[in-house]
Amino acid sequence: MRHFISVGAQYYKGTFIMKYLVAIMLCFFFFPLLTKAEERAVKPNIVLIMADDLGYGDLSCYGSVNCQTPNLDRLAAKGMRFTDFHSSGTVCSPTRAGLLTGRYQQRAGIDGVVYADPQKNRHHGLQKNEVTLGQCLQAAGYRTGMFGKWHLGYQRQYNPTFRGFQKFVGYVSGNVDYFAHLDGTGVFDWWHNAKLNRSEQGYVTHLITDHAVDFIRQQKDEPFFIYIAHEAVHYPYQGPNDKPIRKEGVGDIKSAKRKDVTNAYREMNTEMDRGIGKVMSVLDELELTENTFVFFLSDNGANNKGSNGKLRGFKGSVWEGGHRVPGIAFWPGHIPAGSVCDETVISIDLMPTILELAQTTVPASHQLDGVSLINLLTKQQRLKPRKIFWDYRERYAVRQGSWKLVLNQNRQTPVELFDLQTDLSETNNLAKQNPEKVQQMKRALNLWKKEMNQTATSQPEKK
Fold first, then answer.
1. What top-level branch of life does the organism fall under (predicted)?
2. What pTM, to 2 d.p., does this model score?
């Protein structure tokens, strides 16, 4: 009996030890899987979509009568539509530099267009000391892809694959022929990662969409960040059924330009909207929608071929028409469906917002100029009061609350002060009635300019 008890005790002891060892082995086996699943549940996928030269009045959910954009309208209806959203620049390159660094483009070293013309600044680009959104998210475990327009450097060293994007398909210039894939100087400009790809043919808007959809399918089991930078609705004005208007080594051919720009513009906008619909459809198909944050914006206001609604000015202007643009945020279960936000927001706010979503940040020594919008998006909490600045070709604007100071945009009246709450179209100059306000905002602008000049990333000299 005593022997039986002893053997039994050893059996149960052995069984306990075996179960313990098995439990440890299972933990080691499943722990990485559980960690990855938990990480995926916590870290949302990020889809950042930028249109090119799309004006405040160019979407039907923003009042367009020329363009119908049902997919973007649906995105706004299920998410948040901003009425006071701004690009940090009034032209292409600066806004893109600000978007991907979270800093004023003046600080990031790209305060103007990076031109294709080698006689200008084709040698400039986003320098290596600038920390990009793609780099931060890649370090945080995201798969990163970019499709479309780069416009932050032509030389190979500036290629997106060296600036935080593991996959890149698109062009590095300001625009290409939608069919011939030639830039404005007639140089071929269609890349797969850091190599030119002459074999891929097709309408640029469709190609951008197709590659974006493929990337989502390939990365569906990992957290991903995808930057979709559409060419639409930027010149050259070509719909999906048009023909090339550029030849290699020549550039634009005037006789081939489409005459009915209004219809071409609408077709270009329609194809971009359809492409965004395909992106949202694949997220639904793969059951990724609930865990994906989507943001749509434009890089600046429309030129005179598009619509900025009731806003004054066009692309390149520091009046509202140059930088107040559509902004739509979507994140099911977190952002209230159908919400409208009148808070003043700028595109450099998107990087700190996305970094907070991804639970990561930039190095402590790297200053961000934007602020996170998470509490605004999910809790509708107001942002703290702040001043926002614009500077393009020595034309300046300062925003403080509803007040906006504009300098040097109008030769006849170089100092303009507007109350946007009552005068969104910037027609009633209140500068003479409010000299103290003008001086206070000028002082703030001068301090900002001084800081930007002292901290700006420098560009290389032309060789």
1. Bacteria
2. 0.91
